[in-house]
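Task: sequence design from structure.
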């Protein structure tokens, strides 16, 4: 039977199942921390910061396993650790235990990061990868939407149930891949090309040297930093804010159902919006992209602040839904404009530098936003996130005014 499953099919199964399982867990885990574990706003943000820090620190050392020993082994270890982290969290309510669980599954995630795509690239010899990754992403979107529905239904029975089942399923997926994931095309990565801290710093240095030559890329790097700074607190606290001193509609529905409805509707509308934007981008010049980004980011700031100021569920629901959709639309336009201004030979190195800056921003801002929430309330921390994002609008105006987009 193992011979009947090609590497192509195995990758699509992997992409679909992992997308399903992540959203299956993520639909309820924040609500579990709020309602069952009783974490406060500061603790919610610190849990997220621990996860980000874990991924940031372990990315390089775990990458060595995939480069030296085996892509397959790296993916399998990662899936099992992710599963153990999710399963363990479903069984504990202590803050420090939950924080440790984030470190465990974040550590596991770094084993899979890059190793999964490197494995299939080896198997296919680097051919037809774009088509495969696109198909995998489409299957992942369907899987994620189904996961939200399934997790919401199961969460009404017991809020921790999707976390436990999701954790066990990740472990089972790892065991499945032991038997069915072929690895016959693996070759050790040459020493000079392997992941290492020295290589990481060298890559960042090369990337920043390239960025320093372009005023456009310098400003876009600042924008990337602000994207990281504003997002961490908002992503960790939006559910807490939605439930904090806000009366849910009188319809007899549990909070997990409302969270599922919000996530499900947001995803459906966002998928449609992104497809529309992709078509628009084909006909959109650089000047139009600049104006679009100014308008979109202004609306992002406005909807975040409106979400923070909302005093009833309808206002909070409308503001957050609007923000989520606008944020989803912003990403492909921002990335398209950025990529248009990077030489293809340096693109991977430069984008790696941007990724690290975004991660650094998230790690840096998390405790600050958590402290604001701890000293005041979630509303003030949400408003602070919106204000942190606001310089981005001025930076896009700056690019437009001095003509750096050309």
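Answer:
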């Amino acid at each position: 039977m193992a011979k009947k499953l090609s590497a192509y099919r195995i990758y699509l199964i992997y992409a679909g199942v992992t997308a399903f399982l992540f959203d299956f867990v993520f639909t309820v885990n924040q609500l579990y921390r709020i309602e069952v574990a009783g974490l406060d706003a500061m603790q919610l943000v610190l849990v997220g910061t621990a996860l980000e820090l874990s991924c940031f620190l372990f990315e390089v050392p775990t990458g060595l396993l995939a480069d030296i020993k085996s892509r397959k082994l790296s993916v399998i270890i990662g899936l099992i650790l992710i599963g153990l982290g999710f399963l363990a969290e479903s069984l504990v309510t202590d803050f420090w235990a939950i924080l440790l669980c984030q470190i465990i599954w974040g550590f596991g995630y770094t084993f899979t990061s890059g190793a999964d795509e490197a494995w299939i690239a080896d198997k296919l010899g680097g051919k037809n990868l774009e088509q495969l990754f696109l198909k995998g992403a489409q299957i992942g979107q369907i899987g994620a939407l189904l996961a939200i529905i399934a997790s919401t239904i199961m969460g009404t029975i017991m809020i921790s149930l999707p976390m436990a089942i999701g954790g066990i399923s990740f472990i089972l997926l790892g065991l499945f891949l032991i038997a069915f994931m072929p690895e016959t095309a693996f070759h050790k990565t040459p020493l000079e090309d392997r992941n290492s801290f020295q290589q990481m710093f060298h890559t960042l240095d090369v990337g920043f040297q390239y960025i320093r030559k372009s005023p456009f890329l310098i400003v876009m790097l600042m924008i990337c930093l602000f994207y990281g700074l504003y997002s961490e607190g908002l992503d960790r606290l939006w559910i807490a804010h939605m439930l904090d001193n806000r009366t849910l509609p009188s319809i007899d529905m549990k909070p997990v159902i409302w969270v599922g409805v919000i996530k499900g509707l947001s995803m459906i509308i966002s998928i449609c919006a992104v497809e529309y934007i992709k078509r628009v981008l084909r006909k959109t010049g650089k000047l139009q992209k600049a104006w679009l980004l100014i308008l979109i980011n202004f609306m992002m700031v406005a909807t975040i602040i409106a979400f923070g100021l909302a005093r009833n569920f309808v206002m909070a629901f409308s503001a957050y839904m609007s923000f989520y959709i606008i944020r989803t639309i912003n990403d492909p336009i921002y990335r398209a404009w950025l990529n248009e201004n990077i030489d293809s030979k340096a693109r991977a190195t430069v984008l790696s530098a941007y990724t690290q800056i975004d991660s650094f921003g998230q790690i840096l801002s998390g405790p600050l936003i958590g402290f604001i929430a701890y000293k005041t309330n979630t509303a003030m921390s949400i408003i602070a996130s919106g204000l942190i994002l606001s310089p981005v609008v001025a930076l896009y105006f700056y690019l437009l005014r001095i003509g750096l987009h050309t």
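The chain has a mean pLDDT of 84.
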